[in-house]
Design goal:
By secondary structure, the chain is mainly α. The chain is built from 13 helices and no strands. The protein starts with a helix and ends in an 18-residue tail after the last helix.
């Protein structure tokens, strides 16, 4: 118990928590926007993989890091457009389309990587983002080291949480998006086009998902390999339910999973005689328990996964 408390009281742990949570924050915000508009996007795993490759490749070819993130967003939006076209106007199964997008985007990322990048004994690398200390704030004891010495995309992720919450709850466009996921007929009665809203929501959400993947290759690591997303997309889908489709709780869920992950990595170095596989599975087991406890009270958007056809009720 003393060892665990000592680990929890270190600023380096909480610095790692924010870093590990960053791709999850991007991913869960993207999934949340899609689902608040009524579309389940199971393509998130593939979209994050494609975003990771495209963002890295842009920098590898000479672009700057922010350009890499922007290109990743465009690639994610393209995959989101494809998913939206299949599920919104055509009304195809969102589950089947989403899984197809995951397979397509993952395979496309690996194919393009092998086509355009010469891989030797060691994978090629780029110069990734470096930690950015916020003047004044970074000197605050404990909090400064934990929060205000992060990489720039991490600050962007935290800003996006605030912006998405403001957009959904304080703007007419956000109200229209939320109503499209609850009652698209009421949206149509107001003279708006639910199909158009859903398409743009899925594209915007998919762009955020791709940002989560791009963070892995331009900040957390400096190279690309096909399995680097490692199920983070599926974790984001679960975190949306944990968050009850609210951005603030989505941030909390991402931080909670990241805390479990960062904590088990440090426990492995101080606890002997325990198979490391038990430590690796601990974040997922604890996340499942938290999800079960919270999800029973979550209210699903009424029109989620329900195809909308104009004039039908």
């Amino acid at each position: 118990m003393t060892v665990a408390l000592d680990i929890l009281m270190t600023a380096s742990l909480w610095e790692a928590v924010l870093r590990i949570a960053t791709p999850l924050i991007f991913g869960v915000l993207g999934a949340l926007i899609c689902e608040r508009a009524g579309v389940l996007n199971l393509g998130i795993e593939g979209i994050m993989t494609l975003g990771a490759m495209v963002g890295w490749l842009t920098v590898y070819w000479g672009g700057d890091l922010w350009t890499g993130l922007a290109v990743a967003v465009l690639a994610g939006m393209a995959m989101g457009w494809l998913h939206a076209m299949l599920t919104v106007p055509l009304g195809l199964s969102q589950h089947v389309s989403g899984l197809g997008i995951t397979l397509l985007a993952s395979a496309l990322a690996y194919y393009l990587y092998r086509l355009w990048v010469e891989v030797g004994d060691l994978p090629p690398t780029i110069a990734p983002f470096q930690p950015l200390a916020i003047p004044g704030l970074s000197s605050i004891p404990f909090l400064g080291e934990a929060v205000f010495t992060q990489m720039p995309p991490t600050y962007l992720a935290l800003i996006l949480v605030v912006l998405v919450a403001w957009f959904l709850n304080r703007t007419p466009a956000g109200l229209a998006l939320r109503m499209t996921g609850e009652n698209p007929h009421a949206v149509e009665a107001q003279g708006l086009n639910p199909h158009r809203i859903r398409i743009w929501a899925v594209m915007a959400g998919s762009g955020m998902m791709a940002l989560g993947g791009a963070f892995l290759t331009t900040a957390a690591f400096n190279s690309f390999f096909p399995t680097m997303v490692q199920g983070r997309g599926w974790i984001c889908i679960a975190l949306v339910v944990f968050a009850s489709w609210r951005p603030g709780k989505a941030l909390l869920g991402a931080l909670l999973f990241a805390l479990f992950d960062a904590f088990q990595l440090r426990l492995q170095t101080v606890v002997e005689g325990v198979p490391y596989q038990l430590f690796l599975m601990a974040p997922y087991v604890l996340s499942i328990l938290a999800l079960v406890l919270v999800a029973r009270r979550a209210r699903v958007p009424e029109a989620l996964m329900q195809p909308y056809r104009r004039g039908e009720r």
